[in-house]
Specification:
The structure holds two protein chains of two kinds.
Chain A lengths: L2 E12 L2 E12 L3 E5 L6 H8 L7 E6 L2 E2 L5 H4 L2 E4 L11 H10 L5 H15 L14 H13 L5 E5 L7 H16 L3 E6 L2 H7 L2 E6 L2 E6 L1 H6 L5 E7 L4 H8 L4 E7 L2 E6 L6 H10 L4 E7 L3 H9 L6
Helix pairs in contact in A: 3-4, 3-5, 4-5, 5-6
Chain B lengths: L1 H12 L1 H21 L12 E6 L5 H12 L2 E2 L6 H9 L5 E5 L3 H6 L7 E4 L3 H23 L3 H13 L12 H33 L2 H8 L5 H31 L6 H27 L6 H16 L10 H7 L3 H14 L5 H33 L3
Parallel strand pairs in B: 1-2, 1-3
Antiparallel strand pairs in B: 3-4
The chains are: A alpha/beta, B mainly alpha.
């Protein structure tokens, strides 16, 4: 598959802070690549470097096989960006805002009008065409922000945490819109610290921490790194140390932790350990309120790799 | 053209504050014109004074009292010294003339008797002193030459009643030119304040950090983008200037269509463009809409006071004028002031105007250069 973006040995420092360390990765044509990492892991810095908004101290960035630079306007023409912060004019309504940002790329009025309609449809803003930003909710503003970034139908789209502080309805709308863009042939680089989103959306994921790539691959590939196959969580009151030792002695148990009435048991292998676990609770006459089993998450992967939670 | 189109849309959205601000500035201009005192004619004012005559009211003494009385407002407060001092203190009168005993006889003997006075020392007192001194000087001259007291009195009165005939040879209507200059001097404030307000208001939207970032990653060349913004803002600035000139034509009439009027119009056009570059620089430096009013006060009001837009330059201390040399407003106002003196337009008389204009153009180049440097620095976000 053709590489649309190639980042090689990228380094970026802010005075004494090494924000990005020897970062290398590539983005394949037509895929959604997720950059996952906690706040301050270097996701936005990496994107800003790729877009030539930031200078960098080492490495190289190539887009469509060409060196990216601040005046590479022919490359920029094919790029769309949706920043974390909403970047729109308060004085313009929805249509005029999209028209302005689309107009920075597309001169032809007729084509632009068509593109604006497409962007409005994609983001579900049909009923808000004449609304001013002050009249829109946070979720609708985010959708407008996305519409402004993608209206000119770019081949490569950068989405930097587009769902931060968004209501569930708008989030679903945004995620559906991103899938549609991918289906239309766009290559998407999606940064977030919401692991659920990357799991649903991304073809490949790169986990970043402290400016370095910790792991990359598909969600399933990455989950194997967690070294567990099943995780059982139960709400249990007044569990003592003896019971905890008993649980740890059960078949396949890798780790059992009890904190604030929540018991988490991780199993190295097997996918049907829940029955054994419930049998044990019944045998020991331990009362439980809620119990569920899940496959390992990307948070478990992150925990395994760094020793800390993704949202720490 | 998308930048220009959006500029107009943002301007339209901000129409209320922009219209209000422009109307206020124009009203200030009208008020300034209607309250400015540019009259060329004058009437002599009469000082309030008291005459305490200790001599007999006859002959030269009588004539002296009559002359003073004709040219002043003589008050009758009495002879009590305390009352007279109070009248001076509370400025009921400005001058008290004590005519001594035997004034007439001593004067006729040529002994030049002393007239005692009390004065507040103000403008009216000076006027009264001038009247006294004028009469006595004339009388002293004639008393040496003539023997008859009546003849002396007649000659003195005749001399003092003579009015100088002054023929004004200049073709300039001084009062009208002064009005023109005062009007265009005030434009220094209106153009600067109007320019900074509108340009900064609109640029604060275009130069918002997030919008700027989005523009920077677009395929629009940054220089082209800045040029389009400058062009859009310059159209508004020219509109403001034209509005001010139309107002000038309505208020000032024919004088606007003389050479002096034309020079004022051209000078204000160049200054408007300079205001645009200043506003553009400020708009690039600030991101906060709330700071605009403060900046207008500092830049527009400050330079207007320092450079003599409100107070004539000749009244300003040298130290302030020395500072004013570093501001374009100084050269703009200086050109306007030059017009008061120029009667014939030739290379020599127009030279200072040309120099002032060149200085303003240099200021414009400097401001554009600084704006480019600021803009380039702001491009780096980390």
């Amino acid at each position: 598959m053709k590489h649309v973006i190639e980042v090689r040995n990228l380094c970026k420092e802010y005075k004494s802070l090494q924000a990005v360390k020897d970062l290398s990765f590539e983005v394949r044509e037509g895929e959604i690549l997720g950059l996952l990492g906690p706040n301050g892991s270097g996701k936005t810095t990496t994107i800003n470097c790729i877009l030539s908004l930031l200078s960098f101290s080492g490495g190289s960035i190539r887009i469509f096989g060409q060196e990216m630079s601040p005046d590479a306007y022919h490359i920029k023409r094919e790029i769309g960006v949706v920043f974390q912060e909403v970047a729109i004019f308060d004085e313009l309504n929805v249509v005029d805002n999209i028209d302005y940002f689309c107009g920075l790329y597309i001169r032809d009025k007729k084509i632009r009008k068509q593109y604006i309609d497409d962007a409005i449809r994609l983001t579900g803003l049909e009923n808000y065409r004449k609304f001013y930003p002050k009249q829109l909710s946070g979720g609708l503003l985010r959708r407008l922000n996305i519409a402004c970034g993608i209206a000119h139908k770019p081949k490569v789209i950068f989405l930097d945490e587009p769902t931060v502080a968004v209501d569930p309805q708008s989030r679903n709308n945004i995620l559906d819109g991103i899938k549609t863009l991918r289906d239309q042939g766009a290559t998407i680089i999606y940064t977030t610290h919401y692991m659920e989103e990357v799991e649903i959306l991304c073809d490949r994921i790169i986990i970043l921490d402290k400016g370095q790539v910790l792991a990359s691959g598909t969600a399933d590939d990455l989950k194997t790194l967690a070294d567990i196959e099943e995780k059982v969580t139960a709400k249990v009151a007044g569990l003592d140390a003896g019971h905890l030792d008993g649980i740890r002695a059960l078949n396949n148990v890798d780790e059992a932790a009890y904190h604030q009435d929540t018991l988490v048991v991780k199993y190295k292998t097997g996918k049907n350990n829940l029955a054994d676990f419930i049998d044990y609770l019944k045998k020991e006459d331990i009362h439980y309120d809620q119990i569920y089993s899940e496959r390992p998450t990307l948070n478990d992967v992150f925990l395994k790799l760094t020793g800390k939670e993704l949202r720490d | 053209m998308i930048v220009f189109k959006t500029f107009l849309k943002v301007l339209y959205k901000c129409k209320m504050p922009v219209i209000l601000f422009t109307v206020i500035l124009i009203l200030f201009g009208v008020m300034n014109d209607s309250t400015s005192d540019n009259t060329a004619s004058f009437t002599a004012s009469k000082p309030d004074l008291v005459i305490i005559n200790q001599d007999e009211e006859e002959g030269i003494t009588k004539s002296f009292i009559e002359y003073i009385s004709e040219n002043s407002n003589v008050k009758h407060i009495g002879n009590d010294n305390e009352q007279l001092d109070d009248a001076l203190f509370y400025r009921e009168v400005s001058y008290i003339i004590y005519i001594p005993e035997h004034f007439r006889s001593d004067f006729l003997k040529g002994e030049n008797p002393k007239i005692t006075v009390k004065s507040t020392g103000d403008y009216e007192a000076n006027l009264a002193e001038m009247l006294v001194s004028r009469y006595l000087k004339a009388a002293n001259v004639y008393i040496r030459e003539l023997d008859s007291e009546d003849e002396v009195i007649r000659q003195v009165r005749e001399t003092l009643s003579k009015q100088a005939q002054i023929e004004i040879t200049t073709q300039i209507d001084g009062a009208e030119i002064s009005r023109l200059v005062v009007f265009f001097n005030f434009a220094n404030y209106s153009l600067l304040a109007g320019g900074i307000y509108v340009v900064c208001l609109i640029l604060s939207s275009f130069k918002d950090d997030n919008i700027r970032k989005r523009t920077m990653i677009s395929s629009v060349n940054e220089k082209q983008y800045n040029r389009q913004l400058l062009f859009s803002n310059s159209l508004f600035m020219i509109f403001l200037w034209a509005l001010y000139c139309i107002l000038g034509s309505v208020l000032l009439g024919d004088i606007m269509f003389t050479v002096q009027g034309l020079i004022c119009v051209l000078n204000s056009l160049i200054f408007s463009l300079c205001c645009l570059t200043i506003s553009f620089l400020i708009g690039n430096l600030i991101n906060n809409k709330n700071a605009i009013n403060g900046i207008i006060n500092v830049v527009a009001l400050g330079s207007s006071f320092l450079c003599g837009a409100f107070i004539p330059m000749e009244w300003l201390p040298d130290s302030i004028l020395a500072v004013a040399h570093f501001l374009p407003s100084y050269y703009y106002i200086k050109t306007n002031e030059c017009l008061k003196q120029i009667e014939v337009f030739n290379a020599a008389t127009v030279q200072p105007i040309v120099i002032n204009t060149l200085v303003i153009i240099i200021f414009m180049i400097v401001f554009i250069t600084i704006t480019n440097v600021v803009s380039r620095r702001k491009r780096k976000i980390g």
